[in-house]
Amino acid sequence: MVVAExxxxxxxxxxxxxxEEGHDVVAAVxxxxxxxxxxxxxxxxxxxxxxxxxPSRTDEGLRAALAxxxxxxxxxxxxxxxxxxxxxxxxxxxxxxxAIGYLLKDRVAxxxxxxxxxxxxxxxxxxxxxxxxxxxxxxRRTPPALSAREREVLALMAEGLSNTAIQRRLVLSAGAxxxxxGNIFAKLGLPPDHDQHRRVLAVLAYxxx
Length: 209
What we know:
Order of helices and strands: EHEHEHEHEHHEHHHHH
Domain HTH luxR-type: 139-209
Protein name: Response regulator transcription factor
Domain Response regulatory: 1-120
Distance between the termini: 36 Å
Number of domains: 2
Structural class: alpha/beta
Keywords: DNA-binding, Phosphoprotein, Transcription, Transcription regulation
Number of strands: 6
Shape: globular
Low-confidence stretches: none
Oligomer: single chain
Strand order of the largest sheet: 2-1-3-4-5-6
CATH architecture of the largest domain: 3-Layer(aba) Sandwich
Helix content: 40-55%
InterPro entries: CheY-like_superfamily, NreC/VraR/RcsB-like_REC, Sig_transdc_resp-reg_C-effctor, Sig_transdc_resp-reg_receiver, Tscrpt_reg_LuxR_C, WalR-like
Strand content: 5-15%
CATH class of the largest domain: Alpha Beta
């Protein structure tokens, strides 16, 4: 595993947490170029990356992660951000390879949620923070014709929830959840399949529609 974070205290704390949970941290770096080099050199199971790092302190971490995935296609990356920042999200997901996560740093304090997201990204899944999804959905001015319930289901899909988890959260039957997801795919022009990343593509199609 690779950790990229310029804040020494946060980086050390994150490394300590990961090691205590049984992960092998092969590199802990503090700037974008070092992150790209670490991913290309070590080919980690997953890289945990802060968005804002030197030298630009804007989206350096995100751009370094994109550069690394250009050299190591599909390299799993979990991006952490202090605030809800949606810029660059399309670029992060554009290659369609999955193994991408985008979470707020507050999620690290909820250790179980953070580690669950980390496992899903390492396994090739796609995880988006609920706050990021809420911001994206709220910013839409002309959303496609999804019902209120379909929007709820779509937001939970973007969080990475399974059909069973969506059932529990919304108190729906299995058939109802499947029907809503089928309707979402149909309205967005995405043929349904069993690819977890397709569920997040549905969110992107909705936001860009």
